[in-house]
Amino acid sequence: MAIVKMKKLRVMTMASQRDELLRGLLHLGCVEISEPDGKLADPAWAALLKRESSRLVSTRNEIADVNTALAAIKKYAQVKDGMFMQRQPVSEEEFLGRGAVEQARTVSRRVGELLQTISRLQSEESRLLARQASLAPWKALDMPLDAEGTAHVVYRMGVCPAGTDTAAVKAELRELAAAFYEISSDRQQSYCLLICHKADEAAAMEILRPRNFSVVTFQGTEGTAAENLDKLSRQLAENHEAQERATQEIVQSAEAKDALRLYADRLNADADRETNTERLLTDGTILFFEGWAPADTMKQVSAFLDRLGCAWESEDPTEEEYPQVPVKLKNNIFSRCMNVVTEMYSLPAYNSVDPNPLMAPFFILFFGIMMADMAYGILMVLGALFVLKKSKPREGTRNFMELVFWCGISTFIVGAMTGGFFGDFIPQILKVINPNSTFEMPALFTPLNDTVAIMLGSLVLGVIQVFTGMGVSVVKKFRRGQYIDALFDEFTWWIILGGTVLAIFGIGTVKGVPVVLVIGILMLVFGGTREAKGFGKVTKLVGLVYNGVTGYFSDILSYVRLMALMLSGSVIAQVFNTLAATFGNVILFIIISMIGNALNLALNLLGCYVHDLRLQCLEFFNRFYEEGGKPYKPLAIQTKYVDVIKEEH
Q1: How is residue 627 annotated by DSSP?
Q2: What tens digit of pLDDT does each residue of 515-539 get?
Q3: Which long-range contacts (CB under 8 A, 24 or more apart) does 45-51 make?
Q4: pTM, whole model, 2 decimals?
Q5: Which of 274, 436, 479, 566 has a C-alpha 20 to 30 A away from that of 382?
Q6: Residue 454 near residue 448, CB atoms below 8 Å
């Protein structure tokens, strides 16, 4: 339940052993190779060594290809994994071997080619459909579309806006050697043919221009519209058949789905290895890197490096190196769920304190107080157990579901203390069944009847957590030898806050003077202004008093939200139950109550989590927490689709 102690590694070996070195580190899964930028900035190192090259770009391209292939199989073959995807166990030898990779690579590339074929066919289909749509209005025209006329006569196909009076056009054209025919029409346009003597073409076009007549041509088209439409129909049919063949081949590729998934995980491992390859320094003969490994894994690391014949050394990081040391948190089954909160906020600094063991009891208790319903707690516990058993999630999801589990237990316990089960569901349904029922759930206290007591209890819990945070800060300062800072920064305010409480109850007063409070104030005046001079002592003191009073008291008052959310959740549930009871029907009562409680549960899950998170990150963390830790990212096999069973080397 602490921040894992790290060792700094320096390793040198022959460049020819690169692949064996990286594969061994991948198997160990505990060594993080550092970026060599600092070394390259040194001219002496830069002249001797350079970054090792890698296949990272091509590997990422292959990852994109296989993910595209998997998406295509899921789309065309209608592959469904269900709510939870089952990961297949594979041996490390099979995972890192070449047999399955070659087969999957062939399938991936073939599916990619088929997708390109389908894309090309779909583009061609769109072009053919557009061509078909442009020719369809001229289907009734029994004249080649490429015919432009004879030696003395011209043919002009064109369109006019729908509703054009073609009879009036024909009447105006009677004085000319011209004829005007309407071939077809739709809601937007009329499709017409003008036949006229070449000598009268200009006059005819002048008559048609006010009607917005626009000439249409079909360049490169031979034969009638009907003949071209028949040809297009055949081409579309062939196109559909080609698309169907390509689609069916993709569907048949679904048989290789598991191989593709293994290949995708393998490529991600290769990408991680190639990323680390770029961090290696070499002059072509030797290879060098610096990195980090947990101290408790050094036995395995040293055995591997010695077996490979590497020259290496390890040492504890210096204080100057603390910002670069990766942070790994080690917690038990109860407190590791808090990694969700810590990692979302920020990892602690390497030389700081792991907040998870300290935060876990408060977070889980506060969530239970705000939710406070036995039924909600049961649903949370069952839901978390279902996900943990069915999906066997990875670390991040597992931690979150474990957090839901523990918060569900806390919610059930506090709900049992307040008598909440879907609010007042049981008393209300018993009244629907028997209006004379007087049954009430047993409870130590209830949100509606004991609001003041719950509020005071919330404030007490706030004081406990704030004082816990201050206590952690004192311990940290004592370890660093900052005794004076601890005395005047934390002990002073403990004495002031404690003295204020004693003064309220008239305890510890001498001749009406609250001695403890006075001592605390004197310590604040002396200790808080010890580094200021002259008038600066006054301004420093004013700032300390203002910030201290508003800071501590506003932080403690923030814990009233525990009471507020407990009260609001209980009231909303009771409102829905009361509304459901007005119908006087058991079935309707259950339906309406369950709908309302489902909404209340969803709202409270989000609200309680957010407010609980706020109490931890703002009111608790600001007392002692030092953020800015660098995440620990070792070279390791991390998979999405399969579980790799490691073998002893």
Answers
A1: B
A2: 777 787 777 776 666 666 655 666 6
A3: 45/281, 48/283, 49/281, 49/282, 49/283, 49/288, 50/281, 50/282, 50/283, 51/278, 51/279, 51/280, 51/281
A4: 0.80
A5: 566
A6: no
